[in-house]
Fold each of these.
Amino acid sequence: MISLPVQTASFPPVTLENLPLLPKNLVEFLLGWVGAPEWLVYAGGIVATAGTVVGVFLSAFALLSLVERKTLARIQNRLGPNRAGWFGIFQPVADGIKMLTKEDIVPAKAEWLLHLAAPVLIVVPPILALGVIPYGCEWTPVPLELGLLFFFATGTLTEIAVFMAGWASGSKFPMLGAMRAISQMVSYELPLVISALGVIMVTGSLSLPDIVGKQGGYHLGFIPAWNLFTPWGLSAGIIFYIASIAEANRCPFDLPEGESEIVAGHMTEYSGFKYALFFMGEYLGLFAIAGLGITLFLGGWQAPLPGLGFVPSWIWFFAKLAVVIMSYLWIRGTFPRVRIDQLMRFAWLCMIPMALVTIPAAGIWTLLRANGHGLFAWLVTVPLLVFPWIVLTIVYNRCLAPATRKYTFAE
Amino acid sequence: MLPLLILSPLILLAALGAVWKARPVHAALLLALTLALIALLYLAIGAYFIGLVQFMVYVGAVAILIVFSLLITRPGDEAEEISRRPSSLLTGLICTVPVLAVLFISLIRANPPEPAASDAPSATLQQFGEKLFTTHAPVVITVGVLLTAVLIGAALFARGVQGISSSEPFESGKSLPP
């Protein structure tokens, strides 16, 4: 019989650091106190952990929908929602009521089973992925040894769900949108994974808590040892950042759902709560991938300065998450949408070669630093990264014009 | 034993659906489901790395490739019509019966030892990686060369398709084509 990791001893002390673990500890303690069998206590702990993660991120999703609209409005010199309560604070509630009370329309030519399954399937991968991210030094909901691989595996499920949504709607805009969305997600998944490979190589582990742990400590007393503050880490971090915007279908890469292009792409024929599920899946995916970027490159829950260790680690994580999400919103309000051929060309001609150059740079960096040649490592890796970047920029600028394409599939 | 008992009927049903369904997209999605359930089986027996890689490669790449090509070409539902011809049935029987017979006979004749009462497999990810790239390095290199050849061949093949000409770089300063 396998032994379950269950808290059957006394209740652990409640500190600010393990405040997020409070629901899980409480449920396990109560169930153990009542005398439930061990498997029930374990299951209760799992449900409480999942409930904490889902609860935190769903409220963050509601808050983000309002913050996004206000931020975009301010960038565009207007006010944003300010009717539903003071400062528009109840706008997410109003949105939720609207989505729930809308009529659920399924087109006649649609396959109703796949049409129903697609929004359900698109919410599941981000919630799974949110479970493996280390939020605090004591709080990783599911500390897997292969956490990073699990994260990328769940990302691939999103693509299947997008295809199902596009195809099952039985109409041309969703099918075109699904085609574009899948090609975009597959193309940008490569730079995403390859830039994460550098981090895996340097850390020597696929476990996300290990990756965060390796980024502890400070150089010169005040510069944190985050992966972003190394040459290969900066390059890989920028590639990861751009690829994550594309994976999450955010502007400037929101061609699959741009209103002026293809109505709403694969979400065109959805209304009511199913559309809300798509929306939720997109935003939760944004949280997940931003969280992964923070874990890989920004040191996860590590504090930025040595004296700030008294602040609980999960607060640092969520502060970094807020900064990264605000940068996503800022970028959304600033850049125009890219065209599909520009998008694909950027991924295959610019991002993937740059990501491939980052891997030997990371390897050379680790090797030289391990043998004590710290300065030499800087001298070698910085030109190794800057030179291909300059060459790729020149080459890419030469092919910015649209290729003359003959569309054979749009009737 | 329990995961095998629960998952294998589901895998068989999904695989049967994948080959029997007339509409290609349904068959493709059922194939994705079959591959995902096999990944679940790997995870259930403790081969976590293989299970996740199976999910990522088969469901995330192979199934996506199949559905993407279905989206582009949009074939009709010809499979049902073809499968009703008697010659198709004969071909199917000739192909499947010997294979099934060999599998069945070898399963009956084989006498595997009782599995030891240990839980998870003892190889860690580090050991797995080390073995893969030191003892089995020639295999990895061969597969890499093969995949590179396939990639180059696909790129060359795609360039030769009519109507798509992106080989001339556009020089800035000139006017755009109409």
Amino acid sequence: MPSRVPKIAVLLPPAPQPNVVAGALSLVRSLSEECGVRVAVGLPRTAVDDWENMASCFRASVMSVSVRTLTWTELPRDVVIRMFGSDLDVPSEVSSIQVPHDRAWSFADCSGWILFGDTTLGATAWLRPAIVVAPQLAERYTPAFAGQQDVERRIDTFLSWRSARAVLGTTVADRRDLVSYAGMHPDRVRPRPPFDDVSPSTGDQVTPAMDSPAIIWHPAYPWPAPATSAAIAWREYLETGGRLQLLIVGRHADAVASAPSVSSILDDCSRIGGRWHTRSILPGRRLDRLLDRARILWNPTVADDSHWLVARSLARGIPAVVADAPHMRDGLQGDITSIPTLWTYPAHDTVAAAAALSAASTAPTVKGAPLLPLRPDFTPAVSWRETLDALRLHASDA
Amino acid sequence: MRFGFTPVTLEAHRIAVGVWIELPDSADWSHQGVSRVIGFLIEGAAQRGDIIWRLVAPSSLRDKIAEDLRTLAAREGQDWTLHCPPREEPLACGPVMDTPIGPPEPIVEAPLESPEIASEQSNPIGLTPRRMGQVLFLAGLAALPLLLLRAALRSILRAITTRLRLIVRIARDPVVFAPQLADAVARLPRGVGSKAARSLRVWALAAQVPLPAADLASSSAPEPAPDLEPAPNPGPSPELPAGPLDPAPPFRKLAKFANAEVPVLGWLIPIPSSRGSSLLAGPRAVLFPDAIPYLMPLGWADEFSQPEAGFPLWRAFTKRTLEEATTIITFSEHIKRVQGPKFFPPGVPVVVAPPAPPDLSALLPGAASRRAAAAVLRRHAATRAWRYLADFPFEDVTYVAVSTQDRPTKNVQLIVGALARLIRQRFVDCKILMTTPLRRNAGRTDLPQTVSDAGLDLDVLSMPDLPRDVHAALYRCAALAVHASFLEGIVGTLPFFEAVSVGTPCLMADGPHVSELLKQHALPDTVFDPFDADGLADLIMRALARRDALVASQSAVLAAFGRRNWSAVAAEYAAAATGHAFTAKRPSAS
């Protein structure tokens, strides 16, 4: 590999979500295979297993992709200045800076950085030039944390993002959030290229017994507040004659189901004949198989990355019931009310959600559903190569 | 510096009108409330050129007021002057030297020595410069160990002397410092100091009420200021207080200073509870904007309802001041109709003089583009170390501007509730940027806690105490302005006129002040129910969808109101205060 080929570091935050790991894997594949750059992946130790499971089918060249474990260390600002120089582009009010640390110094010769997640506090000042792949700012839509929102830390995060070359959001609604909520300059906020569907199944898991059709609910976050309203909606569905069982699927399935406010409602549901299970499986072919055997995909949350999952469900002709939220409208192509296998209902309306579940469960299967009803903005027409323009680091430039 | 005895000064054709500012030392003189009206009156006088406002205020507020008034489109010394008595407690480190900012110093204080006096006393020792240099060198060497010791101990000594000085000042004047102490105590975590703070505030308010005459005569009667000469135009003699409604001692001194040093034809009293104004010489016009706590007694601070300190005392003060007034000025017919019978004494003429709609467009830089206004906001945020806003794209973010204080009648929480609905239920990207302060553990307001509990800390942002140009820029960049007050003393609301003057539509809560406006002009899609957060959320969405049409209809109303300008209002107020008949004038370029 010529030494003139740029090397880009892709760093994951501490305790990344599974979809973040899957997205990073997709990105690394695109960078190495399509863009021809060398990639150094920095993984927190907790994400190594997820990464290896997903990357089992990915045969990247050892020369082009190197994977290292790293630790994010929060250091005082003056210490960082002493270590790395006084030209840190960081507001003087920021007292501490997150520094990625790996023993092998794998990132010492990197010429660009892509940071995933919102725990990269202050890192963009030290890692330049950088692109931030922002998660959805879902806390804005949920009074999550029950008033425990760490405002100062959030401000530190946003200030850190503002010093990045670009901030990548997923949908148009994300872009608005990043400008309005986080205060990003609109010129620096770009739509994120789609992650390729490279994530394989976590094959070591036991195949769940699926004797009857079910409703799949994939909560993206472990927050109890939106999960509570979803559980209430399912109880309403059962009370109005619904019979389908509920499968709570994903990394946070057990956490959501065991939250006190949710579990009490699920107990009510059990008493009136509802059956529910949890499955800790990750997005991938395993989930796709589960979708194929299920009856309905249900997405009650209002702000997360679930429109990808909804699109995959629709592509397989599986009916989807979703809360009508800007992120869903912006992520799917055309008028979402015209998609025959998609049922929407006003967000937070549990009665309407139950009615939509009932309607979807009794609807006949529609053949010829749209393959991938994503907006053109998010099709591969926008590639990672173009996105890397923000870093001005193409192999062709070398 | 001393004025002559004739009331017409500086320019022979200007009528001098006094403005009596009776506020405690801890008062917040920012661009809102009475201070905003006074600013507009001064600018109106500047447009006319035949009135000079002479403001009399406590020394402690001098710097705040002067800094604010110097931002006006008016000339200090010609359109306005500020008069404060000398400070009674110079700092221990030496005489206070006032450094003027901007124009020459017309503010009357203690007489200063002429610089020429010092120059005449030069070279009293008779040494040549070379010889003096040698002497100083040797003296420096001798003092070197002491200087080194002092330098080593400086950080400790400075901390000690600073705090000792503060403690001594508090001990000398506990009444003045009590509110600040109470605020500091109230900010202690977990509310442990809230009870002590409340007691301290109540004590301070009670201590400002004059004691009975017998007590004062026996021991605590303050001495008259020794450095004040006898008044050339004495009014009612500032005798010792004979009852609880008599002026407090600091304001008796201030009145004595005003009668002695500030010759005017009459006085404008902008705060109707100013009991010290009864000692002023000459006719007095008392401005009665409203008595809102009379209609909405709940939700104020606890001590506000106490008979010996709070609103009952304010009511008694106000009624007495109005009884002694020459003229009463009020802003609107609804205040005259509703509250007049309770407050206005028979026989005292009442002038209904609505304020002119303010025009903030002249305060905006350049072509008043949103980008330029956003730059003003960013610069100011950087100056105030508001790090989240220092690099904020104000021009690209949809936000609602709220310009008001945090009072029970202002109903700011309704706007916060509407915003929560917009964000959480309708997924509208929107923020609130408001001048209302968010003071944690303030004890008298639930607003900060409401914002925090709803997780809206980064969606409801406070930008308090804005200078006038930044305030105008805040309106200019806003998608909308919203004013949810239940009741105002004027016709309409000031935020309505201010926002529309810079091209931003404004929504207002229904109330008698808005009803009086609607009698004259129709305003579709502008008024909402002050109890209905969902209705306000609906209205905000409709207004955002048809913002241009809303601006057009509201601008037409502003244009109709704009025929009445602050020049005419200033003349009406000055005429009410002095009895002088002013001729109608076109605004001059001055």
